[in-house]
Specification:
473 residues; Rossmann fold; 2 domains; 9-stranded mixed β-sheet; 6-stranded parallel β-sheet; 19 helices; binds adenosine-5'-diphosphate; binds alpha-D-glucopyranose
């Protein structure tokens, strides 16, 4: 079986969030379980030259919208599996990866170029695995071409939803420009008088998946369906949830190159050295007996920053530290900055994106906060588990699937979780965690339960293989 994974971002070439982690790790894991896969992703201005091992392997003349665009495809195996990076400077060499008015056009081009490339490099893949709205265009193009182009006739598509909140909505006038002018494709894109790339992906792909079992249920309800829950319900018999994995070659305190002291379940004491270094790095007093609460995230409403704002004062009153790494909406960035100004001896803030610091925080912190409003899967809670950093999460999406509440009677559970999106519920769990932290044996028990979890990609990759087989059948 030959698989082509297409994604707008993939580690180590590009990353703004979990999609990058997932698209970088899945092809490698597929190869480990014996499946031949190729990854196609854009070559951004941010993609480092060191990853482009060879010169351009293909010059692509991409005939699109009546113009011919000269694009190149670089080849790399930096993520442990064959990858083609589509280089088209006018679309991808920008200050940031997303956030432009014409993003839909940039990814429509990328999708078309990816399909041109596949056709150039050999036989059609059995499965094209598409990710999020950025790949809705390829779902439409393959579904349509399959009807008259022998090359695509046997290819099937899987569409993975990583986040329903982003749907790639644009004006319908661009549909004909992109060549989606037939009634079949047009109807698939049409959504409330506009065009939605997410809707096309959901409508025209052969099967659908999303990144946790719980989220597969949640997106069938209005609250998390963002106007497309009816379509997800309609296609529920073609949808499954597969919880993301963790790349333990990258996120493992035993081998992590970014941290100052290595540890695992058998020498957890060495984690204290990471804590000391983290406090020093943020110029905080080195009081190792006080817990560090941490948060690493895009600062958007999805991540429950509003709840965090409501509980921060209480956390500080307990004498604990809070460390935050993130960037995003100004009101949230301002909040963290003002909290730091208010309590400079207890609060550490890094505004921006910093991969190396993310590892240091996972290793040095005691408690990880993830009170998300919704969370399709979430990766940081799983990284935290492996680093012995106890997560406190809201019971939604993948957070609910991967974190079990600690039970002090029988000693089971790897973290703390609460249900309603309310600060008093969140605080209850924070107090429980503080109570548990005060007793080293109890705390160690929770840490070890988390470190023993196996969220490796191999398990998830096997489920994807089953999904691919189902899709072909
Ligand atoms: P999402 O994809 O919704 O942002 P995930 O939990 O799936 O959430 O993945 C987020 C990924 O991005 C994690 O690998 C996390 O460490 C990383 N990340 C988020 N913000 C930052 C940041 N400011 N600096 C470094 N890494 C970050
Ligand atoms: C999205 C979701 C996140 C998920 C990630 C990777 O960005 O917000 O929950 O972990 O995709 O699937």
């Amino acid at each position: 079986m030959r698989i082509a994974v297409i994604s707008a971002e993939a580690v180590p070439y590009s990353k703004t969030g979990g999609l990058g982690d997932v698209a970088g790790a899945l092809p490698k894991a597929l190869r480990r379980v014996g499946v031949d896969s190729v990854l196609i992703t854009p070559c951004y201005w941010q993609t480092k030259g060191e990853y482009l091992w060879s010169t351009a392997v293909e010059d692509l003349n991409v005939d699109w919208r009546g113009n011919v665009y000269l694009a190149k495809a670089f080849y790399s195996e930096a993520n442990g599996s064959p990858t083609f990076l589509i280089d088209a400077p006018s679309f991808f060499h920008r200050d940031s990866i997303y956030g432009y008015r014409e993003d839909h056009e940039r990814f429509a081009f990328f999708n078309h170029a990816a399909l041109v490339l596949l056709q150039r490099i050999g036989a059609a893949p059995d499965i094209v695995h598409l990710n999020d709205w950025h790949c809705g265009f390829a779902a439409a193009e393959i579904a349509s071409r399959r009807r008259w182009d022998r090359y695509w006739q046997k290819t099937r598509t899987v569409f993975s939803i990583h986040n329903m909140a982003y749907q790639g909505v644009f004006g319908t006038e661009d549909l004909w420009k992109f060549g989606f002018d037939g009634e079949y494709e047009r109807n698939a894109f049409l959504s409330n008088g506009a065009a939605s790339a997410m809707k096309a992906g959901l409508s025209l792909s052969d099967t659908l998946s999303t990144v946790s079992r719980r989220y597969a249920v949640e997106i069938q309800m209005p609250e998390n369906g963002y106007g497309l829950d009816w379509l997800v319900r309609q296609r529920a018999d073609r949808l499954i949830g597969i919880t993301n994995g963790v790349d333990y070659e990258v996120w493992n305190p035993r081998t992590d190159q970014e941290i100052g002291s290595h540890y695992d379940a058998s020498n957890l004491e060495a984690k204290r050295e990471c804590k000391r270094q983290l406090l020093e790095q943020f110029s905080l007093p080195v009081k190792l007996d006080r817990p560090i609460f941490a948060n690493i995230t895009r600062l958007t409403a999805q991540k429950g920053i509003d709840l965090m704002m409501q509980v921060a004062g209480e956390i500080l009153s307990s004498g604990s530290f809070i460390i935050s790494l993130g960037s995003g909406e100004k009101r949230y960035e301002d909040f963290w900055q003002s909290l730091r100004d208010y309590a400079p001896q207890q609060v550490g803030v890094y505004r921006g994106y910093n991969e190396s610091l993310a590892h240091k925080i996972e290793a040095g912190a005691d408690i990880f906060l993830m009170p998300s409003k919704f969370e399709p899967c979430g990766l940081n809670q799983m990284y935290s588990l492996r680093y012995g950093t106890v997560p406190i999460v809201r019971a939604v999406g993948g957070l609910d699937d991967t974190v079990q509440n600690f039970d002090s009677i029988d000693g089971t559970g790897n973290g703390f979780k609460f249900g309603p999106y309310r600060s008093d519920k969140f605080l209850e769990r924070i107090y429980e965690a503080l109570f548990a932290y005060a007793d080293p044996d109890t705390w160690r028990n929770i840490q070890l339960n988390g470190m023993a979890e196996d969220n490796s990609w191999e398990n998830a990759a096997r489920k994807y293989v089953e999904l691919y087989e189902w899709t072909r059948s």
